[in-house]
Amino acid sequence: MNLRPLIQSIKKYFNRYRVFLTYSGLLYLTAMNFVLRNDVVDLKVQLAELKAENQKLIADMVYFNRSFEDFPLPVWQKVKRKDKFVMQYVNGAYYEQYLKPNNLSRFDYMGNTDFDIYDYSTALQYYARDLQIALDGGHKRFDEFITVKKKINKLDVIKWRVIERRDTLIYGMIIPEKLKI
């Protein structure tokens, strides 16, 4: 079989329609670029909406836990999501004593894990204890450490588990030195 005539006819075809083929390819790429840019814009809008909704949910969580809001001892609530414990709530006392001195707001911590806020070894210690409470239930007291203004503080902490609907909630409270038994 002789391929030479076939190759010459293909070459003639491309030479005749070269401009059309070139610009049709560019037109296709331009159209796809436009579609992809619109998708990116849509995703950015969805992300902004999700962030706003997340902030509203955090504010709702503060409202839901308002019974702890004026409680004089630092209290927090985490929820177990897959293999993580996500901070859902910190009361005013926790904020004033442990977040504000480190230039963090409640919203910096809420919706994040300890690994997002603290150094790895501290976060790992908190995680291990939260996991122990989540699995065993009941309540337990621990000595935990937290850094405030670059100073390490030893805390007496009590943690307990609450199962609400299908969520595992871990509550924690810091026991002041005067109340230790």
Task: Give descriptors for this structure.
Beta-Lactamase, about 180 residues, alpha+beta, single chain, 2 domains, 5 strands
Walk me through the structure.
The protein has seven helices and five strands, in the order αααββααααβββ. It has 181 residues and is an alpha+beta fold. The protein folds into two domains: 4-62; 72-179, Beta-Lactamase, CATH 3.30.450.20. The protein has a five-stranded antiparallel sheet with strand order 2-1-5-4-3, with helices on both faces. A hairpin with a 2-residue loop joins β1 (75-81) and β2 (84-90). The longest helix is centred in the first third of the chain and has 47 residues, at 18-64.
Strand arrangement in the largest pleated sheet:
2-1-5-4-3
CATH topology of the largest domain: Beta-Lactamase
What low-confidence regions span 5 or more consecutive residues with pLDDT below 50?
Answer: none
The proportion of residues forming helix, as a percent range, comes to: 40-55%
Q: What is the CATH level 1 assignment of the largest domain? A: Alpha Beta
Q: Radius of gyration over alpha carbons?
A: 29 Å
Structural class estimated from helices and strands: alpha+beta
Would you list the SSEs in sequence order as H and E? Answer: HHHEEHHHHEEE
| Strand-residue proportion | 25-35%
Q: Categorize the overall geometry.
A: elongated
Strand count = 5
Number of separate structural domains:
2
| CATH homologous superfamily (4th level) name of the largest domain | PAS domain
Report the sheet with the most strands, covering strand number, pairing sense and barrel closure: 5 strands, antiparallel
Terminal CA distance reads 99 Å
CATH architecture field of the largest domain: 2-Layer Sandwich
The average pLDDT score comes to 86
H/I helix tally: 7
